[in-house]
Amino acid sequence: MLDPSLLRSVVWTDYRLAVLFTVSFPLVLLVWAFAKKNEPIQHLLTIYWRVASLLMITVYLMIGGFSISFLVALMARVLIPVSLWFWVDLNEEIREQPDGALKLSFNSWRWAVTIYNVLGAAILVPFLPCGFISERLAATDCQVWLEVPRLYKEYFHGGNTNGFLGFFGILGLIIYLLCLGWFVFVRLGKQGRQAVN
Asked: What domain range includes position 75?
């Protein structure tokens, strides 16, 4: 494992980049796409936000101290890039659009967030044991990953207990998995890689 101070620096940088690449940029792009009435980009960003909600679920699971949060974090890192490149019809519509600032910004962000998530997944893989052995969660290298979510809790949910907020993480994960199961076993079989009916 990494030196503790280097690990802490990597983890905090990862969270800062997450706010930038997975929240700020896509929010600006979504507002811009609605202002420009660019339906393919709107649709793909709406899909992105549904998938990326798993990141917020991960934060609440980490606040609650649930070891499964490490597995959920890796799942989010994999599903986000997949959601951005999976749809044949939307990718084709975006590719066929005339060049412009929105298209360039969207495609640049899509590549950047894909690379960010692939690298983030690679960094997270050595910490997957934190997700399998609950006693392992007490280890310093696992606890470093929980620092930022717990700071978030202090800022936004100071009056609530970690267990209470963790419950919402578990509830969110159950709903997310039910929706993902419906998509994989029902919708995907009917529509394939077409996002629009």
From this structure: 4-191
User: Do the domain assignments include residue 196?
Assistant: no
Within 10 angstroms of residue 192's Cβ, the number of other Cβ atoms is: 11
Q: CA-CA distance, 136 to 141, in Å (whole number)? A: 9
Measured N-to-C along each axis, helices 88-96 and 101-124 cross at an angle, to the nearest 10 degrees, of: 140
pLDDT tens, residue by residue, 124-178: 999 999 988 777 777 778 999 999 999 999 999 989 999 999 999 999 999 999 9
Are 123 and 10 contacting, i.e. CB atoms less than 8 angstroms apart?
yes
Q: Please indicate, yes or no, if residue 197 is contained in any of the structural domains.
A: no
pLDDT in tens, 43-101: 999 999 999 999 999 999 999 999 999 999 999 999 999 999 999 999 999 999 999 99
> Among residues 31, 58, 55, 59, which one has the least CA distance to residue 45?
31
- Judge whether 127 lies within some domain: yes
Look up residue 193 and give its two tokens.
């890689």
Whether residue 13 is contained in a domain is answered as: yes
How many domains are there within the chain? 1
d(CA 9, CA 180): 33
Cα–Cα distance measured from residue 159 to residue 161, given in angstroms and rounded to the nearest whole number: 7
Coil, strand, or helix at residue 197? coil
